[in-house]
Amino acid sequence: MVKENKVLKLAGYVVLGVFAFCAIAPILYIISNSFMDPGEVQDAIGKCRFHIIPDSFTLIQYYEVFLRKPEFLLRFWNSIILTVPIILGQIVVSLLGAYAFGKIEFPYKNKIFFMFILLMMMPYQVTLVPVYIMLKKMNLVETYASVILPNVFSTFGVFLLTQFVKSIPDEQCQAAKVDGANHIKILLKVIVPQCKGAIASLAILCFIDNWNMIEQPLILLSDKEQPMSTFLSQINQTSPGLAFVSGVLFILPAILIFLKGEKALLEGVQHLDIK
Amino acid sequence: MEGIEIVKYSKRESVNGYIFAAPSLVGFLLFFGIPFIISLFYCFTKGAGDIEYVGFQNFIDLFNNSSFQLAVKNTVLFNLVSVPLVMVISLLITLVLNSSLKGGSFFRMTLTLPLVIPVASVVLLWQITFAQTGFLNQVLVKLGVSGPDYLNTKLSFVILVLLYIWKNCGYNMIIFLAGLHNIPKEYYEAAAIDGCSKVGIFFKITVPLLLPTMFFVFIISIINSLRVYREAYLLLGQYPDSSVYMLQHFMNNNFTNLNYQRLSTASVIVFVSIAVVLGLLFKLQKKYEV
């Protein structure tokens, strides 16, 4: 029995080890390649060699990206210019919406909320045509706003925060009301302080989604406004060495946010349950 | 939704509700509701300047369009293959992770990492691995087998499934872990006292009590599988092998010629089909109280 347990445990470690390796290998690969000499990278890729330990450790590719080829950094800024306003905007819009759907009774509330959920589950391509029609009418195509605006109003945020707001006891809002607080006060003094974790969850999930955006920029933005996510797929083939450095720069914020907010991320995903 | 509503709304509260919901509601109408109605209108017309009513002609044309047929077939096939696979694999990992091994939190963190890693930055490794003279084929050659150029053959379907699993396993694992956590420990203790085997415990306690979580994972996996265009585009470009030509490719590629009618018809069909499938699934869930 004891022996059997040991075998099972070992098998468990093997399974976890294999999957953990698969999960982490691509990241180690691009990090190690970013510290190689461009010639070395080119050579390994040309021969499709899985080359992971640098022959000589060098920062030359970083030097190229930071000082010689500023277009790489520009793409990075494009990603930030697109992502940060979306996250901030979505938090504000979603908080207001979540308070309405979670704590106020009004006609057609459930029907509207149902429509929100339905839209949230659709692939981007379904909404791309309607969004494009509207942006064209507003003369916003090929501006940053064409990507930012529709994403600020993504119904996902409202749904996620409503799940959290609903779990706050009604009595607390009632008590505040008895004390003479209006809705804005209740939202700011009762709801928001208890939703800090939820807001962090939304910010992280929203970041993950928008930092990686592909569909919208491809169709809505011109070449010079493209973010890192679409740009990387172009330079992956032509200049892999610089793509590794850009890839590391691009991953870095994602990993830092993940390390800082892993708990919030887990909580957010667990609250996505649609009932 | 909840049967007959007998709630009486206070007028003031209703106004307040709409005020707070306004930003999200206006956004919803502006970027989806209103333009969706406009695209509904496009579905039944043709021509750019002189718009002409054509009935269901656009729908008939679309259903007879061979690339649309291919796209529908591939999308359905991709869901049928990838969703069960990712569910089984992520459940297996979660069970192992949950069996009180050392280093659980390290493994959990590592395994959720792909969720946050931008696919754009790691896709090069996949391309190198599966190229004609790539890493995988070099290993195969040493074993005396010569492999194909994976990314330009039907095998790109398999590789896309793998990439989907790589990306989404962590997501499902997080949900499964929470589900397992919610099963009371006493049940397991009682079963162990009754002399139930490990396999028996799994099928008699874990599976039935985990069903609601499985349903949740199922839905999320479908949603994510419908979004696999991102990974497909990054891995295989805009014009991939026909085995991975999905509905999303069909729609994105039709944007280049801006055929509003065809695009609108396709989005309406996709929207309605997904809504119907999800609606049926939720009905089933309610019926069996999963």
Written account of the structure:
Chain A is mainly alpha-helical. Chain A is 79% helix and 0% strand. Chain A has helices at 2-34, 38-46, 60-68, 71-103, 109-120, 124-137, 144-152, 155-166, 170-178, 183-194, 196-211, 215-220, 228-238, 240-270. The longest helix of chain A has 33 residues, at 2-34. The mean pLDDT of chain A is 87. With 290 residues, chain B is mostly helical. Chain B has one domain (65-287): MetI-like fold (Orthogonal Bundle). Chain B contains 12 helices and 2 strands, in the order αββααααααααααα. Chain B has helices at residues 11-43, 57-64, 66-98, 104-116, 119-130, 135-142, 156-181, 185-193, 198-226, 229-236, 247-255, 260-287; strands at residues 45-46, 52-53. Chain B has a two-stranded antiparallel ribbon. The interface between A and B is large, with 97 and 95 residues.
What's the topology here?
The complex is a heterodimer of chains A (275) and B (290).
Chain A: H1 2-34, H2 38-46, H3 60-68, H4 71-103, H5 109-120, H6 124-137, H7 144-152, H8 155-166, H9 170-178, H10 183-194, H11 196-211, H12 215-220, H13 228-238, H14 240-270
Helix pairs in contact in A: 1-14, 3-14, 4-7, 4-8, 4-11, 5-8, 8-11, 9-10, 11-14, 13-14
Chain B: H1 11-43, E1 45-46, E2 52-53, H2 57-64, H3 66-98, H4 104-116, H5 119-130, H6 135-142, H7 156-181, H8 185-193, H9 198-226, H10 229-236, H11 247-255, H12 260-287
Antiparallel strand pairs in B: 1-2
Helix pairs in contact in B: 1-12, 3-7, 3-9, 3-11, 4-7, 5-10, 7-9, 7-10, 11-12
